[in-house]
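Researcher: Quick sanity check before group meeting.
Model: Go ahead. Protein one:
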Amino acid sequence: MISDKKRKFLLVLLISTSVLAISLTFYFYQLFFSPNTMVDSDRVYMLKIPSNAVFKQVSNQLYDDRVINDAISFSFVSKVLGYQDAVKPGLYKVEPKMTNLELVKMLRSGAQVPVKVTFNNIRTKEELAEKITANLEVTPDQFLHLIQDSVYIRKFDFEEETIMSMFVPNTYEFWWNTSPEALFDRMYKEYQSFWTEERKQKAQALGLSQKEVSTLASIVQAESQKSDERPKIAGVYLNRMKIGMALQADPTLVFATGDFTLKRILNIHKEIDSPYNTYKYTGLPPGPINLPDVNSLNAVLNAEDHDYLYFCAK
């Protein structure tokens, strides 16, 4: 028979154990299910996790940027869920009042947010590199290294003079941590998608390759910012090419000089010895003088059929 003293001890022990169990349960519940992000309701925090980043970097960044309130609980939940050894690079959207469980599950699954990349009005490879990588992990130097690598770009059937044709101006979605090589592969697929069978047939009917269409479109685009004028201008240049006449396109001389502030072409400029001097050399230059947009490309493919050999700038 249990004595009163022992009964009291057991009762106290039971109560103490129950309180401890409840406290631990509540504590662990708090670790997993209580909000731990301090992001304001009127803003969103975009977390950039670089390639090859380790967990400590992620945790420190979140805490140092005052995104999470408790780094210890975040680390604990990350350990339990196996995230500490499975960090995935990318761009992640951290929202207000996220729990450790929500935050870790998002990061562990690699549920990153796509980045919109828009480029147009580009004249040089350097400009393209700056524009296309502006919101990506890849750097302009990494991009330039590939676009200037004649061996690498040969896999896409382009040369150093024509590779710009592969980049069709538009708005695209990429993952923030897209590698330089994956970026080029994607743009090549977009280039192939643009060149439908219908467009290929139109180019063939004009006696032009796809690269030549891009080159002529770049000249047409430089001649006029008005989209409705471009098919007529394209027709003029095509007529000159048909009779073996020099294109005599001022924008190609601007490109040849490398001085894009040049507003007026003088006779001295027409003597420049450059394959881009379309006063001195007949036919198209080696490659595009800018990144022609879809409107300009379509203007060449749907050029006006007329007999004009000249046009006046307005």
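Researcher: Fine. The other one?
Model: Protein two, sequence then structure:
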Amino acid sequence: MPNVAELRPAAEQGDPEAQFHLGSAYQSGTGVPEDDAEAVAWYLRAAEQGYANAQFALGFAYSNGEGVALDNAESLAWFLRAAEQGHDAAQWMLGTTYSWGLRGTPRDDIAAYMWLHLAVSQNDGHDRSPLDQLEARMSPAQIAEAQRLAREWREAHR
């Protein structure tokens, strides 16, 4: 990550990648005092421009109440925006959220499987055990439906 003195001018001029990295610097206290609210402000500027890493970071911020009030609906919305852009970690987060009914969502095995399947198929570094647990409790018809939805998602997002 470039140093804060290099990032700030680009971030202030609207560069979403610089805004994201500046937010990360504030979140970790790297080169600036740690300030979660300032981190969220920079993440938001980048996320509103469609920067998926910033959208994912905002999902975590709202999920944990770091720099903002804890807000499960807002957390889920930001994770979804990142996941829709193909952000595999956001897809994995949505999958686990739907699998266990976290963040105020009802459990939805088909949606969980779809998102986890998309994440794992993009990045084999993701823990596959939530997907395996889903397969054990889902019917073959449910798995087929989730796989169909994942295929349709991939086709729509090429």
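Researcher: One line on it for the slide.
Model: Residues 4 and 31 are 6 Å apart (CA to CA).
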